[in-house]
Amino acid sequence: MNPVTGLSLGRIAIGAAALARPDLVTRMFGVDVAANPQAGFVARLFGSREVALGVATLAASGRGRTGLVLLGVGVDLADAVAGHLAPREQGLEVLDARVMSGVASGAVLSGLMGLRTGPRGRASGPAPD
Which of 10, 28, 57, 73 would be a feasible disulfide site paired with 68, CB 3.0-4.6 Å? Predict the structure, then answer.
């Protein structure tokens, strides 16, 4: 499977989970839902973003798809940085923040790998002689 397709499907699944059960998703991120009652609202914002980006990327082709993959890489990079800063700035447990940053960093790598592969999962580049 092309990394972009897998990443897009993953975005849709995680986003749908955040929309349907924001309490579970926020707990997975290590957020104390009882101490942060607005966490569900923020999780749903995250979820709608993920679903929209995943669906749009799957539906796009050519330059539009490339642009959406780059947008996703930027969003995931920002998520990785947020996870890195969270223990100092928001008091998130270090292990939870590292897991979050690791997942986001993996999504960055997946997006970049997807840019290097063609629609059928083969490496793109100059055509062979």
Answer: 57
